[in-house]
Every structure is written in structure tokens, then in C-alpha cells.
Specification:
Elements lengths: L9 E7 L3 H8 L19 E5 L3 E8 L2 E8 L5 E9 L7 E8 L5 E8 L5 H11 L3 H18 L31 H4 E8 L2 E10 L4 H15 L3 E12 L1 H16 L3 E5 L3 H9 L2 H7 L13
Parallel strand pairs: 9-10, 10-11
Antiparallel strand pairs: 1-7, 2-3, 3-4, 4-5, 5-6, 6-7, 8-9
Length: 299
């Protein structure tokens, strides 16, 4: 049965020229290079515990988040992926791909995602993915379908069910050439010292591309030097997604283990609302940052 009744589900739809069989072939290809299809399944995390004709037991993940999942594609109309273990997600998590064959030969894919955190980090990431991180999930789904299309020589033929094949989204309208920014172009990271503290000033966007650079710098400070405090200044940050939040939460955990205070300052606008909505503000305050104003500049 392809039924999931969780009230906090996230839903996405795409129309593709792929047949359900071709999509399932790509979805269940757990060989080397899977990360070329699915960015959230890094090769160094991938481990196939068992693969049968219509089911598989696999560990996948990336950027410090992993989950062991059970794939079931015994029903030709859907694939059910169930989380059985993870460092952040509860066993109530998972996703379902449901296929609707259209008269014109195309296929509508309906993706249902369920994310229930098993700890605070998972709870925060789940909340972010259901709110500001929703577009990140949708883009990952679109790119995954497009990668399978390209592998089958179909090109980029994926469309939203809410627009016709001849309509272009705002992202597809011809305009300036679009390039992918690397971490250095997307985010500036400057580290300075003040007394027994290290100040990490960020400028730009903290997203899935730039957060690994922030993680490397933050973990290097916490593990190598063990300062009395590390202050992350977000005054000049224009955007922060779930991967950036995950990096800060991971840093907070390491800081606590090393008896170091990790603070964030310079929260403003949507960043301040995000920290308040996810209760991260109180979490950092309990870590010894009571005296820091959310909008304070680090001088």
C-alpha cells in the first residue's frame, strides 16, 4: 500500500518523460558514483547491506547526516523508503515516490517526505525543512529527476504539473548566465582574536555549497586551539539554510564537549525570526551567551 498519513508531510510533484521503471532503476542504483545522481548520498557514506530484486537495505548520507533506509519497490505504482536508523532522524521518517501514468506517455511523480527528528538536531532540521528549507528539498528532487533523465538520454524534460511543457519557470527564463558559486565566492569567513576568544565573521550566504567551508573553519578552531569562547558573527549573513543551521548545532555540541562557549551574534531580520522559531536562541543562551544581544555587532 502506498499510503502515508503523517500530518506533517512535505509534498512535491514533477512530470517527466521517464517511465516509472526508468525512474526506479535510477533511484535504486546503489553503485559507485551514486552521488552524481543524488547529491545527498555521498559515496563515502554509501553502504549496501542487502539488495534483492524488489527491495534493498542501504545506509546513505552526506555532510555529517546519515540514515539507514529500507527501499521497497515491489508495488509498480510506488517506491517506499523507510528510515530504520539514523543519527538525526526517527524511524517514523521516510519518503514515498508515487507514480501516475499520463495518457501522453509521461509520468507524474508525487514525492512525500516525512522528517521526524530523534534528537534536538533532528528536530531543528525537520522544522527548517518544512519551512524555509522546503525549496532546498524541492530543488534536490528536481535535480535528481533531471539527472536520471540525462542518464537515459532524455535531456532536461522535467516540468511542474502546475505549468505546461512550453512554460518556463522564472529560473529557466533566459537572462544572465547562471554559474554555481563555490564556497569562497559565496561566503567570506574571517577569523580574529580578542582576549581569550575567537571571532568568526561571516559575510554572504551560508548554504549547502558554503557550509562545509564554515564547518572546517569552526571545527578547526574548536578542536585545535580550544579557546575560552568562539563567537560567530552573522551580522552580514544574507541567507542561512538548514545545512548552515546543522553546522552551528554540530559546533555547539563540540564546544560543549571541550568546555568552550560558542555564541552567535548579529542576528537580524529573518535570521532572528528563524532562531526564535526553532528555539535556537535559547539553546545558545544556555551555553553561556546570556549577555549577548541578538542584534549586537562584534567589535
Amino acid at each position: 500500500m502506498c499510503i502515508m498519513n503523517e500530518p506533517r508531510n512535505i509534498h512535491f510533484h514533477r512530470i517527466t518523460t521517464l517511465t516509472p521503471d526508468l525512474f526506479v532503476d535510477g533511484l535504486t542504483d546503489f553503485g559507485p558514483g551514486r552521488s552524481m545522481l543524488c547529491a545527498n548520498s555521498a559515496d563515502d557514506y554509501l553502504k549496501v547491506h542487502y539488495r534483492g530484486a524488489l527491495e534493498a537495505d542501504v545506509t546513505e548520507g552526506s555532510r555529517g547526516i546519515w540514515e539507514r533506509v529500507y527501499y521497497d519497490w515491489s508495488d509498480p505504482n510506488c517506491v517506499v523508503v523507510t528510515t530504520t536508523d539514523s543519527n538525526v532522524w526517527d524511524v517514523a521518517s521516510g519518503r514515498t515516490y508515487t507514480f501516475t501514468r499520463q495518457p501522453n506517455g509521461k509520468t507524474e511523480i508525487h514525492l512525500t517526505v516525512v522528517r521526524e527528528g530523534k534528537n534536538f538536531k533532528g528536530w531543528v532540521l525537520g522544522l527548517v525543512q518544512r519551512t524555509i528549507g522546503r525549496r532546498v528539498l524541492e530543488k534536490a528532487f528536481e535535480e535528481f529527476v533531471q539527472a536520471i533523465e540525462a542518464r537515459n538520454g532524455l535531456g532536461n524534460l522535467t516540468t511542474s504539473p502546475n505549468r505546461t511543457d512550453n512554460e518556463l519557470s522564472s529560473e529557466e527564463q533566459p537572462s544572465m548566465p547562471r554559474t554555481v558559486l563555490n564556497a569562497n565566492e559565496d561566503l567570506d569567513i574571517a577569523v580574529s582574536k580578542r582576549d581569550d576568544s575567537s571571532i568568526v565573521r561571516l559575510r554572504g550566504r551560508v548554504n549547502v555549497d558554503s557550509s562545509p567551508a564554515l564547518r572546517d573553519r569552526l571545527m578547526g578552531l574548536l578542536r585545535a586551539q580550544s579557546p575560552k569562547a568562539v563567537i560567530v558573527d552573522l551580522s552580514d549573513v544574507s541567507y542561512l539554510d538548514s545545512s548552515g543551521l546543522a553546522t552551528l548545532i554540530e559546533g555547539l555540541g563540540v564546544a560543549r564537549m571541550r568546555q568552550t562557549t560558542l555564541c552567535v551574534q548579529g542576528l537580524h531580520g529573518r535570521l532572528l525570526q528563524l532562531f526564535q522559531a526553532t528555539r535556537l536562541s535559547s539553546l545558545f543562551e544556555k551555553n553561556g551567551c546570556e549577555g549577548a544581544s541578538p542584534v549586537a555587532q562584534v567589535s
